[in-house]
Design brief:
The chain has 9 helices and 9 strands. It has 271 residues and is of the alpha/beta class. The strands form 2 sheets. A 7-stranded parallel β-sheet has the order 3-2-4-1-5-8-9, with helices on both faces. The chain binds adenosine-5'-diphosphate and magnesium ion. Adenosine-5'-diphosphate is lined by residues 18-24, 51, 113, 185-186, 217, 219-220, 223-224. Magnesium ion binds next to helix 1.
Length: 271
Amino acid sequence: MTNAPPTGHCITFVNEKGGTGKSTLAVHLLVSLRNQGHAVAAIDLDSRQRTLSRYLENRQQHHPQLAGVEVVVPPLSELDSRSAAAEQECEQLRQLVQGLTANHAYVIIDCPGSDSPRSRLAMALANTLVTPLNDSFVDLDLLGQVEPEAHQVKQLSFFADTIWQARQQRALAKLPALDWVVARNRLTMLDARNKRRVNEALENLQGRVACRYVPGLAERVIYRELFPSGLTLLDLGGSPLAGVTVPKMTTSHLAARQELRNFISALNLPA
Ligand SMILES: Nc1ncnc2c1ncn2[C@@H]1O[C@H](COP(=O)(O)OP(=O)(O)O)[C@@H](O)[C@H]1O
Ligand SMILES: [Mg+2]
């Protein structure tokens, strides 16, 4: 790791599990920051699914009038040796982040739903780490094991340990401490009891794993249907630029947008 403090704020979306909402939250955050006029760049480390870069490509193709976002998809190494390939991929990411943070206020990294040396480096390079969790004890187990009744923490997970190592790497490199934020995603109104129990367990876990548990997003169709157009909730009901056709805003969309704003504001990003 470099000892030179980066100028831009690096935000990494990570969870070793797929489908928890990393790319969806990442794209909404970057559009929000971009709409506020900030210089934002994105790095899509999920070179197989490429959800984030595909989203932005759709945005560029169908709404070229909207402010664009620079997105880089670093390729995987083709070296045969696993350790040499990992080293090459990490060196490439290190240089990329160093370059992008030098001239962007925010750099957003979207990780794949699996563990790899490159994802671990993306965690260590982050000022803010965001982990979306689905509303289930299965997802919660990724942070730590909890007792079935009182939900006291029994044991921390490999993932929590990986984040601990990322914190140590930053401390050794004399970089500012990372802020680990956990947000629940796809909350449903139907299962209030489960919601309360997961909430209780997360309250217990946050002190043990040193994360901040912040309000997340409800399960809403709108997060799924806008992908082909490249639009986000934040583009509905008018656009910062004239001449762009966007779907009509409903009251449900308004509620969703407020929820999204609450989530983004809870990230406490530097202004
Ligand atoms: N709050 C939400 N409500 C409804 N669907 C969602 C929500 N968040 C994500 N999704 C959907 O869940 C799936 C997985 O989301 P994605 O962001 O691709 O997760 P990840 O990047 O963690 O694999 C996608 O189909 C996405 O559209
Ligand atoms: Mg993804």
